[in-house]
Specification:
The chain is of the alpha/beta class. About 35% of the residues lie in helices and about 20% in strands. The chain has 8 helices and 14 strands. It binds zinc ion. The site of zinc ion (ZN) has 8 residues, from loops.
């Protein structure tokens, strides 16, 4: 049986420079990609020689425009098959997209997901190698209105663009699951009003500190459990612990590791 090896990479967002360095890990990655029968990536930049004009989001600073030479670097890395349907494909408008397609064809790179019409953008692209053939379909579910390709209609030409994938999320639950969800909602509502009452009784600065700490993604507060912070579970060193023990009862203490407010709860796992 013939083996076909395919290396699949994610977004290729290179805008300049050679991605391969003298780092052995970098060289090993290149060897892996070059050694595969097919290496596939998502071309997340617009390789540009100046064609097209920045689109809305691109003009706002969110553009990924590269010198067209990056395509040669991408090819030298072993990538010969590229998916092109993504939210940056039209950063330089349809003019830039048509130029991307031209630059890819000139380099004989296989690409899918964009085209002069919807049919072209939807079509699979085929790559043939000594061990077999590969077909690629590329589509995007995140894109701005008007970036999707469209078919010609009557005397109107088609619109160059990407292959759009629209989807709708539908969750089906049983009656008992729905009841459980309703119960969770009710409990949450009760807890939330209880929380509001408690917050009103606390020092606003302390509440603000707690909320800032929580906004960072961790726990806002945790009990001091022996030498351990109850929020991050890391042991506090003896020096810090001595400072904590010496602190006044109403001092606000924070974990030196995670920043959580430390609660000195009497008899809590001391
Ligand atoms: Zn901590």
């Amino acid at each position: 049986m013939t083996r076909v090896s395919v290396a699949l990479a994610g977004d290729c967002m290179m805008t300049r420079g050679s991605p391969v360095t003298a780092d052995p890990r970098s060289l090993a990655l290149r060897d892996l990609l070059v050694g595969a029968d097919f290496a596939v990536a998502n071309l997340e930049v617009v390789p540009s020689d100046g064609a097209g004009h920045p689109a809305g989001s691109a003009a706002g600073g969110g553009c990924l425009i590269a010198d067209s030479g990056v395509l040669d670097e991408i090819r030298a890395l072993g990538f010969t098959v590229l998916g092109c349907a993504n939210n940056h494909a039209l950063d330089m408008g349809t003019g830039g997209l048509l130029d991307t397609m031209k630059l890819l064809r000139e380099r004989r790179m296989t690409f899918a997901g964009v085209g002069r019409t919807l049919a072209e953008a939807r079509a699979p692209a085929y790559a043939d190698g000594p061990t077999g053939s590969l077909a690629l379909i590329s589509c995007a579910s995140t894109f701005a209105a008007g970036q999707e390709a469209c078919e010609p209609s009557g005397r109107l030409p088609g619109r160059p663009g990407l292959n759009p994938l629209r989807y709708r999320l539908e969750v089906r639950v049983t009656l008992s699951q729905l009841r459980a969800l309703t119960e969770i909602d009710e409990t949450r509502r009760q807890r939330s009003s209880r929380r509001d009452e408690l917050v009103a009784s606390l020092n606003p600065d302390l509440v603000a500190l707690y909320e800032r700490q929580r906004a960072g993604g961790g726990a806002g507060a945790g009990p001091l459990q022996g030498r351990r912070c109850g929020a991050c579970r890391i042991e506090i060193d003896r020096g810090e612990l001595a400072r904590i023990s010496a602190a006044a009862e109403d001092d606000i203490l924070r974990c030196p590791e995670c920043g959580a407010i430390l609660l000195r709860v009497r008899d809590f796992g001391a």
